[in-house]
Design goal:
- The protein is an alpha+beta fold.
- It has two domains: 152 residues, no CATH class; 67 residues, no CATH class.
- 44% of the residues lie in helices and 8% in strands.
- It has a four-stranded antiparallel sheet.
- A hairpin with a 6-residue loop joins strand 1 and strand 2.
- Helix 1 packs parallel to helix 6.
- The structure holds zinc ion (2 copies).
């Protein structure tokens, strides 16, 4: 059965009898963020001390001595409140402490699935816990909130650490829609078509590239040769 992804609104197919709220593409995007978060944390710590990190977010011309650390980064790094933080979102200004947010989602998943989860520890990282339960999360209505909240903290962290992932256009056309729109992005496991949404693993893309590119190169070469021949044989305009 096919249905609309609650996140990207594209049509996708349910797998077996499990109804999926979110599509494969959105699941892979979230999985990429969960891999990226532990890598962003040390970079955020390095950006914590003023003058030790990127200049974004500082205000110029203060009349008083600035804080020795960046308040926005301090906020993201914690101290993380124990227990669910999502219920208190309204009270929190700026970006939520990352690890507390991750833990709150891990705790929600554990509660719904009646699984045990170790008690919260301020430095513990539960991204792998969420990643392990992501297929389940993608069948739940709250997957849109998980997507939004993880996306928000990842984008906020990237803005501070200046680590926007590189997006590299691939030269082979999409095997699904033939558009030249395949993009590989840092942290992401799959190459994605930005036109039709197809996902290809790097091995699948390599095999596809090997199959389609030689004939494409030959066609392109024939066109170039044909064009050059035409240019050489076209008689120049003679004066009347
Ligand atoms: Zn989607
Ligand atoms: Zn495509």
């Amino acid at each position: 059965m096919s249905s609309l992804c609650a996140i990207c609104r594209r049509a996708h197919r349910d797998q077996g009898d499990a109804h999926r709220t979110a599509c494969d593409r959105c699941e892979h995007r979230i999985r990429g963020w969960l891999r990226e978060i532990p890598r962003q944390l040390p970079l955020l710590e390095a950006s914590l001390v003023l003058d030790g990190g990127p200049a974004q977010g500082r205000s110029a011309g203060r009349a008083h001595a600035p804080l020795p650390v960046r308040a926005d980064v301090l906020n993201m790094l914690g101290p993380a409140a124990p227990g669910p933080v999502r219920d208190h979102r309204g009270d929190q200004s700026g970006t939520l402490p990352i690890l507390a947010l991750v833990y709150a989602w891990a705790e929600q998943i554990a509660a719904e699935r009646a699984r045990d989860i170790p008690p919260f520890r301020p430095r513990a990282d539960y991204t792998r816990y969420i990643a392990a339960h992501l297929p389940y999360a993608c069948t739940r209505p709250w997957i849109t909130d998980l997507h939004t909240e993880l996306g928000d903290v990842v984008h906020a962290a990237r803005a501070i650490t200046r680590t926007e992932p590189r997006r590299r256009p691939q030269d082979a056309p999409c095997p699904g829609c033939s558009a030249f729109a395949l993009i590989a992005e840092d942290w992401q496991q799959f190459i994605e078509c930005t036109t039709c949404g197809l996902l290809l693993s790097h091995d699948e893309y390599a095999a596809h590239h090997q199959a389609v590119m030689p004939p494409l190169y030959r066609t392109a070469l024939r066109l170039v040769v044909h064009h050059a021949t035409q240019t050489q044989t076209t008689p120049k305009d003679e004066p009347a």
